[in-house]
Amino acid sequence: MPTAIKERIKKYSFIQPSNGHSPQEFDKASITKLKSIAVCSSGKSLTLLETHINGLSDDEVHDRLDIFGLNEVAHEKAP
Predict the structure, then answer these.
(1) pLDDT of 4-51, one tens digit each?
(2) What is the pTM of this model?
(3) HSE on the CB side for 47, CA within 13 Å?
(4) How many CB atoms lie within 10 A of CB 12?
(5) CA geometry: angle at 36 spanning 18 and 24, to 5°?
(6) How far apart are CA 43 and CA 9, in angstroms?
(7) What DSSP string runs through 40-53?
C-alpha cells in the first residue's frame, strides 16, 4: 500500500468499522463530526468532508475505496 494512502488512513483512524458497538451506534468522534457538519454552511461542510461541489476526482475515489472499502450495508441475510 503506498505511503500516501497509509497517511490518509491514519487521519481517519477514529472511524472504526468494528468498535465494539452495535451497528446502530456511532463512536464519539463520528458523532462530533456529524454534528459539526450539520450546523455549518454547505461550503464548510464540503471542506469538513474533504470533497468538492463537483464531487471527488477519480484519484480521490480510489484512495477512499482503499481506506474505507465499498459503501455496503453490513447485515445478516434473512433466513
Answers:
(1) 666 666 665 555 555 455 555 667 778 888 888 899 999 999 988 889
(2) 0.53
(3) 6
(4) 13
(5) 30
(6) 24
(7) S-HHHHHHHTT--T
